[in-house]
Amino acid sequence: MSNAVSASKVPPAPDLLYSDTELALAGALDDLLSQRCGPAAVLARTEQPEAYDVALWKALATEIGLAGLLIPEELGGAGASGRELASAAERLGAHLAPVPYLGSAAVATATALAAAKSATRPGGGHSAGQQAAGIAADLLRRLADGTVTAAVAVTASAMPADKFPAAVQLSGPQPGDAAAGIVRLRGRIDSVPDALPADVLLVPAEGVPNGLYLVEATGPGVHRVPVTSLDMTRQLCDVSLDGGPARQIAVGASAAAALEAGLVTGAVVLAAEQLGLAQRCLDMTVAYGKERHQFARQVGSFQAVKHRLADLWATITQARAASRYAAACLASGDPDIAVAVALAKSACSDAAVTAAQECVQLHGGIGFTWEHPAHLYLKRAKASSVTFDTPGAHRAALAGLVNLPAPA
Amino acid sequence: MSNAVSASKVPPAPDLLYSDTELALAGALDDLLSQRCGPAAVLARTEQPEAYDVALWKALATEIGLAGLLIPEELGGAGASGRELASAAERLGAHLAPVPYLGSAAVATATALAAAKSATRPGGGHSAGQQAAGIAADLLRRLADGTVTAAVAVTASAMPADKFPAAVQLSGPQPGDAAAGIVRLRGRIDSVPDALPADVLLVPAEGVPNGLYLVEATGPGVHRVPVTSLDMTRQLCDVSLDGGPARQIAVGASAAAALEAGLVTGAVVLAAEQLGLAQRCLDMTVAYGKERHQFARQVGSFQAVKHRLADLWATITQARAASRYAAACLASGDPDIAVAVALAKSACSDAAVTAAQECVQLHGGIGFTWEHPAHLYLKRAKASSVTFDTPGAHRAALAGLVNLPAPA
Amino acid sequence: MSPARSCTPPAAPSARCGRPAIAATMGPVLDEENEAAQARDKVLAQERDLRERVRAFLAEHPPAQTPREDFLAARFDAGLGYVHYPVGHGGLGLPRNAQPALEDELAKAGAPDIDVRLNVIGLGMAAPTIIACASEEQKARWLRSLWTGAEIWCQLFSEPGAGSDLASLATRAVRDGDDWVVTGQKVWTSLAHHARRGLLLARTDPDVPKHAGLTYFALDLHAPGVEVRPLRQLTGEAEFNEVFLSQVRVPDADRIGAVGDGWKVANATLMNERVAIGSSRAVAREEGAAGFAAAAWRQHPERRTQDLHQRLLKLWAQAEVSRLAAERLRQQLAAGQPGPEGSASKLIFALLNQELSGWEVDFAGTDGLRYDDWAMRRDASSDYARGPVFRYLRSRGNSIEGGTSEILRNIIAERVLRLPAEPRADKDIPWKDLPR
Amino acid sequence: MSPARSCTPPAAPSARCGRPAIAATMGPVLDEENEAAQARDKVLAQERDLRERVRAFLAEHPPAQTPREDFLAARFDAGLGYVHYPVGHGGLGLPRNAQPALEDELAKAGAPDIDVRLNVIGLGMAAPTIIACASEEQKARWLRSLWTGAEIWCQLFSEPGAGSDLASLATRAVRDGDDWVVTGQKVWTSLAHHARRGLLLARTDPDVPKHAGLTYFALDLHAPGVEVRPLRQLTGEAEFNEVFLSQVRVPDADRIGAVGDGWKVANATLMNERVAIGSSRAVAREEGAAGFAAAAWRQHPERRTQDLHQRLLKLWAQAEVSRLAAERLRQQLAAGQPGPEGSASKLIFALLNQELSGWEVDFAGTDGLRYDDWAMRRDASSDYARGPVFRYLRSRGNSIEGGTSEILRNIIAERVLRLPAEPRADKDIPWKDLPR
Fold first, then answer.
1. Which of D310, D422, D423 faces C306 most closely, judged by CB atoms?
2. Residues paired with B223 in a beta bridge
3. Is the link from the previous residue into A197 a cis peptide, with omega within 30 of 0?
4. Which chains touch A (3 or more CB pairs under 8 A)?
5. What is the pTM of this model?
6. Could you tell me the domains of chain A?
7. Would the N or C end of chain A have less CB density within 10 A of its end CB?
8. Interatomic CA distance for residues B372 and D422, integer angstroms
9. How many Cα atoms sit within 13 Å of D222 on the Cβ side?
10. Strand ranges inside A43-160, DSSP E
């Protein structure tokens, strides 16, 4: 009622709701994932040699168009924004889809987009830059039509604000490299998410200046060793580069900016995925509470259980707002994006871990077994809370962003 | 069953139980306090000019002998230890007795004891030291027989490990001071606990070297201004010294050690008091849960309420062990006392604040009123958690004590 | 499964997010755009009409020359009070969102406005209840003086023995001729010491189950037998009152709704309480409790510790996220999709106020042990600027007042999550036989 | 009111704490000292006798020359198994605390000992139940091979449909001549794949309320119809088993206690489970989960952050306090004053294991995302040294196994705090009519 008085002082918040487009996309994804990615199938795959469901990913990439969401229409993509990217991630998180959406459609695509943009922008347009832009644009086209899957070769716990990685360096060139426009990379990056099913790796390499390079994942001198991962539905791998050929897609500040864009997008998308996971864990637990009887009552009728689930629901409503805000900031290029990422990644990580832990606990014994899918959610939730760094690290970033300086 | 194997490696823990002596003392205190210090009386006193119940304190000091618990029998005290001191504090905390036990029988007495000891120990025995020891011993005799109440003039949030206070300095002497063995002090100490009803103040004063001085509280140049305090049952006051006469009771390292001994004893006793308060808040809440009906049931039959009270009870069992350990270390002069204080003050502060907050909340509306005693417990609990510094500050002390160093 | 699906789903999968879907959804999207355009035009026309009507009214009643009370009364009579009130009762039957245009015109003319804070229960709860449930005669009698502020209203629901379990209340109303004779005790009554009338819920039949035996009245607080006493709370102040009713005669003409329908009418009142909480204005970053904490942190570098820093970062982040959640709720309401998230907001609001003010006391160190004044005050209306200790103490009430956090969790569990109710023994027993 | 008072209070106020009290209490203190001295003398004499008896036994059965199994059997037969077992059944009817002297003499002679871990349920739960509730004939049949380890025992209580609500179990035992025919499914059975016998709780009468229709048996796991399958848990390993019972014939001679008395016997078993947990040995600082975390912190300065430091300090302090609380509980038991604090210990133990291992995963950063091996293993018996991820996952079970934390809170609330039970509808209804 006193709106008129103070509302003018408050900067308008972006739209935090789901658009009809996003809801439709989510619905389509739920339909497909319910059919092809049920809990039994996800569990069974964790014991197969191929941890990723490449066929499902192809279907999602081409039939639903997930791979090209962020890519402009002129490069064959859907020209959508961080909002749609995030809502799709919620559904993938809810179903624990073992597909490289995070690594390819979010991190690698955003990195390549930034590389393509920076290489072509006025001032950055020298010939090497144009060549790099061409490589990035070509990659984006192949990403958009789903023929190629990419991953950025950074370790899982990397954070947007980290300094440029020093794990990989340029090694001595071979005859003809300069003419072919290639360089050689050498180094090792441990625990890379979504690199196993990738066709192309984007590799940040230390040098003077630093650079970002495209490497064919199945090319010579590239070794990927699967890691026995906490998150059984997103298997990490250790990547080593042994002098294999690479083509530059960004250099110096542009390389750093491209990598940061990728990691920021990754953090926003991972937060949304965690939100979807948290909601699904709550839903599963609520459903079990209605179904399971002990002491001649549904266990969901016990007040202590009800209150914990109510608290969890409240936590998730909060995390949802944070996730939506981050997606909106990403979509609009809002300068508050750094704050938004810190809020979303910390809130959604905490919500997901809490939800998954409550899901195990409130299922009782069955929740502790291998046969029940609760543990898959727990493992994904805990691993994701460390991926792109911990809630604590993200909150620590706020100190500088919102002027709450650390003690001297 | 594998006791024999490993028990030898584990250093024996001190006795953490209540001795029969302690139980008897507690029983006697409960009897007296139930009669003279009921909730209505405590509440009524908060609106009277005299916030402390001096008559009750005289009774406790002389009839039960609380004032001289720590004082050796040869000085007229009970020759008891930190254990009895702590169990008595539990009862005083449970009843919110508005008496200067903490300030006088714990902090000031332990300070004077340390001063008396250090002044008379071999090497410290110069003539000024002997004089100081005589003053301290005389004070202890008067404390033991209840004719005098003392307080150390340090601000409430002081912590044992803090550096020597600089709030008070020596000021210019007046003619005849040297002959009379007195000096003059000038300065101001804010928010001193238990100084209002004190006859004698022990004042740490900065100088070369630092010293600890005895000042008659009602003497010339001493001003005590009552503070409107969060803790309505332990009213603070601001003390200012305006060139009043003072006699040294310890100097240099001995002064620092005496002050530290006082604050360590204070922290242990305050932790015990908080434990007693926490248990009383739990007891009150449990009793209310059995008495109050809503929805045609005792509110204590609702599972969410039961689980919260069970958790609170568990928290209190933990705090009790920490408090008992600190009391035992204090009693035996165990070198682990610093760790024990950090554990006890943090665990008991947290338990008391949680218990008092739950007490208000689970009493519903009535717990939010002035007429119900719950708020007196809340105010004591919150204020005590800051007194002798916060749980966070005490846990931070562990970093150095148990080799968990802070990040570089 | 997902909450995203619980919002009204579109008729068909939508465009832009993958080529195969585009063809299928372009149609509906265009339809929606047409409808939206038509609706927008209608709103604009309505607003034009309204602004003209206000200008005409202002010409007739120039604010500078008209005494405030006369101006407000005339405004009400012209249907320009709250435009969503019914025609003939201060409004024009327009949607709520037409009001800003009216306020805008009045503000431009420097016209006086009503004081919402002074009659917050009257405007927020009594008026909607009267509009929804009272007779035309009652509307005519009560709404005008309510809206202008001539008569302040309060709410007489809670009792010492009926807090969370409101329906178990014991205040008795016994029929005597054209009157009811009311005896009992009400509690937690804001504004009762200013109020002329109170929304009264009383038991008219103790022999039926508790929800069925209640009747709703508008009580004249000046009637003989009504005594209002301040209820002091732990901060020292008395925001609330106890109201003692001894053989108070209430005319049957002041009954709202049928005899025995009191619970239904009370729910209309309480629903409006929730809407009022939900539809509050946009809030800026650090506007609430987090602002006090952040300001203290910036002002006192010498008090900073790592422990307090980590706690502050966590609380600040939670507070900012809860601000975004409240904004999201506001957007849902504005889009006509009210969600259940308001219950979460209240839970989290209480928790954050409590945690942040607790942090503030800790951060203040020795200063946090000092208070300004324990003396009893009336009309303090919770001045949160009174300092950390006041905020710490006052915030304890946030999880009790307006429905305890425990009851809120029950509501969320049962109404949002649809978890089964606990076995209940109090629904079918005559009120008089309930254990208490 | 205070818990201090709940311990046995002394007869009169005590000495040393204030002069007026001294005179009144000196007497009782001296009496207590006399009694204590007498008791001490008695214990010493007992111990002397026992040591002599052991030395005589060792002379007859020189450990070096006697095969392990023979030695253990002879030891049992000599009453030198567990001295608190009854005479004639491996013991001497002495108090438990006489055992260390026996073990000491045997250890000095280099005698073989039983492997407690291998038969932890047999020794910890089956034996006490047999001693308390079985017939002399059954004791003679079972205790010797149990104690020597020739027969491992397991516990067949929980079922997929009866976890927290154990008394609702559905495994049926139907009388057929001298046998019972048992059909059902048991779950969470440690050691079943090694065990020869199982403590079986089965329903013999579905027509009476659930607690009344149960009977207790000792099941031969080699009997036809018993199938033991590994039950894999979220760590990948299978510590536990499912046991399927299809028409298994159990002789009535293997029934423990009367028909329908199964719940009573089961409670004797479960009580021993709690005593076993409570009386565990003294633990050193940092011996448990906090030790792993502290070691990691010291080893990896490069991983340290303020957030992780603050969390670690808090958890370390809680862990150390919980160690002191466990020590206090041990002292209470040793003093013959068992308190209810054991329930708190289990609650806090689970919570701390979970929080500390969660911290460890966070602290490990990228390394925390790696596991050693998901392959299914048997007999892994929870090797907590497997790393932070294993500890994180395994610890989730700590709040489920051996009674969930939720059930534990119910027990604390009702048995310790004496809060009223919830309204229950399942106690007086025939088992077959319960909703499920």
1. D310
2. B240
3. no
4. B, C, D
5. 0.93
6. 18-106 (1.10.540.10), 115-255 (2.40.110.20), 258-401 (1.20.140.10)
7. C
8. 28
9. 5
10. 150-152
